[in-house]
Every structure is written in C-alpha cells, then in structure tokens.
Amino acid sequence: MVNAELLNRGLGAQRRGALVWAIALVGLTASVLAVWPAMSESDSLDSLASGMSPELVSALGLEALSSPAGFLNGNLYAIFLPLLFAVLGIMHMNALTAADEDSGRLELLLALPVSRVSVYLSRFVAVVLVLVVVALLVGATVAFGGATLDMDLEAAGVAAATVSVLLLALFHAALALALSGAGLRAGVVVSASFGVLVVGYLIYALLPMIEPFDDLAAASPWHWALGGQPLESGFDGTGLALLGGGTTVLVLVGLVAVRERTIRTA
Fold first, then answer.
1. Cβ partners under 8 Å of residue 35, min gap 6
2. What pTM, to 2 d.p., does this model score?
3. How far apart are CA 264 and CA 266, in angstroms?
C-alpha cells in the first residue's frame, strides 16, 4: 500500500528540515565526543553525581561518567538524543498529516485516485526513512569518533543504543500518526505527542525513586528503549519488541481511523 510517488513527495517535503536536523544532531554528537579527551583527564566527572539517589543517577545517565560509555550516556543517550529524535519524528509526522489537513492540502491530494491508507502509510514510511538516515549518521559519528579517540566502545553497544533511540522516535511518530488519523488538529497532535513524550520520561526517571510505584517505570517507552543500558549491555530484545509492537499498533490505529472518518476541509 506504499505508493512510490507519495513516498517521494513525502521525502521531498522533509528534505530541508531533515538536512537541518541531521547537521544539528551530528554536530551535537561530534561536539560531545570532542570534549572527551579533556574531560577524561579530569577527576571531577564522577563527583558530579555525588549526593544524588542511585535511581536518579541512573535515569540521568550519570553513572560511571569517567568511562567512555558512561560519558556518552550522560551527555547524549540518556536524554538529549532520545528527546531530539522523538521531537524530529513528531514534528515531521504532524507536518505531513494533521498540518496538511488543516491547510487543505490533504484534501486536494485525496482527490487523486489514491486511498487515504496509502497516503498516510506512505508518509509514515517517509518519516521512518528520514529518521533511519539521521540515526545512521549519528551512529556512524559515534563509532568513528569513538575509534579515533580510543574510547574503546563496543560496536554492538553503539548499534544497540542507536536502534533504541530510533525506535523510541518511531513510537512517538506513530503516536502522532494515530492522533492525526483520528482527526485531531495539528496543534493538538503536537501537544499531546509531546505530552506523552515528557510524561513517559518522568515516569521512567522519577517513579523508581518512589518505592510503592517503582515497578510502574517499566511501563514507559523510555524504559523499553533505555532501561537495559544498551550502550553498555547491547540489545534488549524485550524492550525493542515492546517499542516495535507499540509502534505497529499505533500505525494501525491511525490508518483505520483515517479510513473511517470525514476529512476536514480548510
């Protein structure tokens, strides 16, 4: 049901934004790697987390900051990359669905002999491809930079962390697709998707510090992606399966919803 022409149009619509995001994320990653040699010689890295609870230290990725993997967790993989990739997925998915419907462009497109499901699915795949390309660039930057700086990073760990961040972004992009498919306006889609993203992080980061509710942290997509410490421990099959399954369900919900409802007119 993916239409090649629709897919190409979806990629074209994202070209400029994707380029800006790719440059920004690769630049952020490279800048963090660049300060490692100076920071690795400092004795103050591990003292940054002194006084914090173990659960908060883990959620912020501040464990073992003096190690290469711990340094990258604290400065990239614990918060910044997952957050920014998810924002990228949400913004681009919203722009290609709810925002196009609000402006009337989607109505014009659906006047062509194509199904709504094909339009939405093709545009979701376009967002997936953009996220994959940007994730590959960031992952390659970490792998190449780590090797250049003798950071002794495991290739499997870098791959696992990259895939985890990518799947977390795809989950939230799929959520934006589902909300758009249900007919919500662009502002509501963005607000709700960002809300789920932030609440998911708070559940992952804060609930482990509250003993009666600590087990509930496992319900957060952030936990599915990062709870297994992928940079150090490699792939977490259960977490990745939950992210992949959740993404699939949300996409199906969005496709069914848009097929059954009336498209708004501008």
1. none
2. 0.92
3. 7
**In the structure encoding, which two tokens stand for residue 125, read together?**
């795949």
| Residues 101-133 pLDDT 10s | 998 888 888 778 889 999 999 999 999 999 999
CB proximity list for 43: less than 8 A, separation 6 or greater: none
Instruction: List C-alpha distances in Å: 242 to 25, 67, 68, 86, 223.
Output: 26, 29, 28, 16, 10
Helix%, strand%, coil% for the chain, nearest 5:
80, 0, 20
DSSP secondary structure code for residue 212 in this structure: G
Report which of 187, 191, 232, 228 is spatially closest to residue 69, judged by C-alpha positions. 232
Q: Which of 222, 265, 183 is nearest to 80 (CA)?
A: 222
**Measured torsion, CA atoms of residues 82, 83, 88, 93, in degrees rounded to the nearest 10:** 90
The CA distance from 123 to 169, in Å, is 15
Identify the sign of the CA torsion 178, 181, 186, 188: negative
Nearest to 192 by CA among 250, 145, 144: 250
